[in-house]
Amino acid sequence: MKKLIKWGIIGCGNVTEFKSGPAFNKVEGSKLVAVMRRDAEMAKDYAHRHNVPKWYSNADDLINDEEVDAVYVATPPSSHSMYAIKAMKAGKPVYVEKPMAATFQQCEEMNAVSKETGVPLFVAYYRRTLPGFKKVKTLLDDETIGRPLLVNIMLIRSPLPAETDKENPVWRVQPDLAGGGIFYDLASHQLDFLDFLFGPVKKVSGIAKNFGSLYKAEDTVVAQMEFENGVLGSGTWSFVSDNSSQRDVIEIIGTKGRIEFSTYGHEPILLFKERDFIEFPYINPENIQYNLIQNVVDAIRGDTECVSTGITAARTNLVMEKIVYKVRRIPIQNF
Length: 335
Prior knowledge:
The chain is α/β, with parallel strands linked by helices. It has two domains: 5-126 and 288-304, Rossmann fold; 131-283 and 317-328, Dihydrodipicolinate Reductase, domain 2 (2-Layer Sandwich). The protein is 33% helix and 24% strand. An eight-stranded mixed β-sheet has the order 8-9-10-7-11-12-13-14, covered by helices on one side. A six-stranded parallel β-sheet has the order 3-2-1-4-5-6, with helices on both faces. Strand 13 (269-273) and strand 14 form a beta hairpin. The longest helix has 19 residues, at 310-328. It is globular, with a radius of gyration of 20 Å. The N and C termini lie far apart (45 Å).
């Protein structure tokens, strides 16, 4: 009989309430046995509400718990590397939230420890396993639109109330905690998915600005890129527009048609071919990370390979640094 993978969560914030946390008890071969949050009362409350037998206010205690086989790190990106490295050195596989870390250098350090210890490292780029996004990949693999030539991302929205609070700014707009701003939080999913479709980015450049002065991080970004398979891409992101300009679309243009889909709206995938127009319904699991967590558990148990690893995820961090480096003045290596 295959071993049951018993999980511990470090950082039980909003993402773990519904998107991920419950899935650890739902997927086959998995069980959530412990959670940790620095605020002991909040950790205890989370454990009580989710029927988790153990709770901690110290991450080391959870990592060193002999009953915990694997660790899910769901803290802000700046602490991903610290916790992941501690867990891997303790011999425990790690599933870490995205983006993988605050910097590409931290990603490299995490991957180095994974290689040295032989302990696997996975990253929560779950769109690689969602039915709608997998349908896009199938359409491309089947050459439904011929040879893909161009891909364009457009993600534009107005600022959220939590992003305009200068007294208590949300961590996602604090570069020291998040690595960047909303671009790092949201565009990372998009750039990772394009890596999944087309392979690694070969060349990339960008311009990043802070137009809204709502926080220190960039709020408007434009990028151009070339993928390893020759596809050319562009991206436009802005998080300080008004609702009239709201867009959430990725468009892939090929020699025989085009595909259009959203990243966050989860609307039907649209296929355009000459005079034909087809919609493909988009269906998510109840807990949106369920499919990837099942893939991770199966990989730990030796049944398959995971589609989202520290190696694939680190590439997205590097691409984002390449795009915004002129503003953030981060010295990074050449491709």
